Amino acid sequence: MDDRRCAANAGDDTWESGKHHRELAIIWPLLGRHIAFHRRLVDLTESVKAALLLSQTIYWTRHGRDVARTGGWFLKTTEQWEMETGLSAKEQITAREVLRELAILNEQRIGIPAKLHFRLCVDQLGAMLADRIGRASVPMDWADGAAVAELLGPSLAYHRTLAGIGGGVHAGLLLSRTLHLTRLQMKRQLDAWVRTSATQWTEDLGLTRREQETARRDLERVGVWEEALIGIPRSLVIRIRMDCLLALLVGDESESGDPVVVPHLPDCGVPADRFSPNGESRLRETHIFVSPKAPNRNHQNRHHSLAESANLHIQGSTSDSVQPLSAAEARRDAGRSQSGGALIFPDALLPEERVAALRLICRCEDQAQALLDELSARMMAKAVHTSPLAYLRGLVNRAVAGQFVPELGQRVAAARRRRQEESTLRQQREAEEQRLAAERATPEYKARAAARREEIRRMLDRMRTRPQSGKRP
Q1: What digits encode the pLDDT tens for the residues 23-50?
Q2: Which residue, of 77, 337, 346, 367, has the fewest CB within 10 Å?
Q3: Are the beta carbons of 224 and 165 closer than 8 angstroms?
Q4: Are 107 and 117 in contact (CB under 8 A)?
Q5: For 31-158, CATH number?
Q6: CA distances (Å), 207 to each of 200, 216, 227, 357, in order?
Q7: Omega within 30 of 0 (cis) for the link into 324
């Protein structure tokens, strides 16, 4: 009996692990690209939020457009900082004050109307970081990726979308790290429970015990965090509720029936031209998802000591198996196929991305194909610089708000209709040819053809043997 019970429990654990594995494969591409959060900057600033703002400032200083020409100055509004990092206006003010006190961030209002620009004091920052790691302070080339990585130390992947779900930067950072650890355990074919301690969280993220407790409480409140005490002595283990997280990411309704609003991950801005006329910048509005011509951006891979931060921009998704559709989804897809045909997804989407895309567009089924066509057109025009699913989530949010207007997608729909019409005509011609070929193969047709040939032969014989009339004098 005990052996059977153990076997049953092992089977349940295997099924549960496979379920989490499939859900994680769908969740990962929904997260979009991430921010490289440098843990060493927390020790320098003594603030996680200031370190996050500084991490993003370093990124734009190194990779932003026109920064070298403008002397390191770039433009960021409060709304843009919040959309990129998740920091509220009040949190930004506090973080900027910390950085100004350390003399590593300059601020200046430029232009008419005056707009707040920022500049990173790279020499001061380099000297402070070099002093912390015991290196001689020498001028450093910030374009040297290997040298910068050594100076900043390991970086962690921080997903802005998860901060919107957890209700704050600390919760988003904790959830991002836990999700990464869960993914590592899944790849090693282990269970989904993460075993760590408060001391380890502090070492990895820089969060104090009070900040950790608040973040865990916020994540438990939204239903994506699960804890348990196991072993002797008792130790804390943590697991992410993938089904709840997936529902929040795709914007499904909560158990209470109220719609869950998940902030999207916008495209980040670009540094402003300090010397542009009238003080106007060439900053691209970050809240616009549908842009007829997206700017070029640097997508540079950097070497880090952690695999999770090796690529600054997540363009694809995992290669894990996808979760099969539920019975309700299968019935919905069957009804959609009967009413208007199956949905046509962009060819560049991977199988797991198609499953996640289907979950996203179920919020506005009447515009589902138009949304997919718009995404396909944007991808073909190379205007999607984030994850395709993050771009699609932005289109869905616009459609739900009644602000979606198809632009390039109409060309894709027209081309598909032309192909369908050509395919229908070709099938009709092939069907007619097959019908004629089958008819020619019947004995009756062959007999009629032979009789017709014989009749024509007799007519020709009569014409040859008919006496010629006399010639006219």
Answers
A1: 888 888 888 788 899 999 999 999 999 9
A2: 337
A3: yes
A4: yes
A5: 1.10.10
A6: 10, 12, 18, 34
A7: no
Identify the band that residue 170 occupies on the pLDDT scale cut at 50, 70 and 90.
very high
C-alpha–C-alpha distance, residues 225 and 165, integer Å:
11
Q: How far apart are CA 89 and CA 81, in angstroms?
A: 9
C-alpha to C-alpha distances, 473 to 86, 467, 470, nearest whole angstrom? 113, 18, 9
Q: pLDDT tens digit string along 104-119?
A: 999 999 888 889 999 9
Phi and psi torsions of 382, nearest 5°: 55, 35
| Segment 308-314 mean pLDDT | 35
Tokens coding 90: 């009040």
Taking residue 220's Cβ as centre, other Cβ atoms within 10 Å add up to 13
Q: Which residues sit opposite 74 in a β-bridge?
A: 118
d(CA 306, CA 183): 14
Q: What is the DSSP letter of 363?
A: G
Give the integer Cα–Cα distance in Å for 51 and 125. 12
- Give the residue ranges of DSSP H helices in 191-326: 198-205, 209-222, 242-250
Q: Sign of the C-alpha dihedral, residues 92, 93, 98, 103?
A: positive
Higher pLDDT, 7 or 245: 245
The answer, as to whether pTM is greater than 0.70, is: no
Strands 225-230 and 235-240: antiparallel
Write out the two tokens for 386: 């984030």
Q: What is the mean pLDDT of residues 68-74?
A: 88
Largest CA distance in the chain: 135
CATH 1.10.10, the chain: domain bounds = 31-158
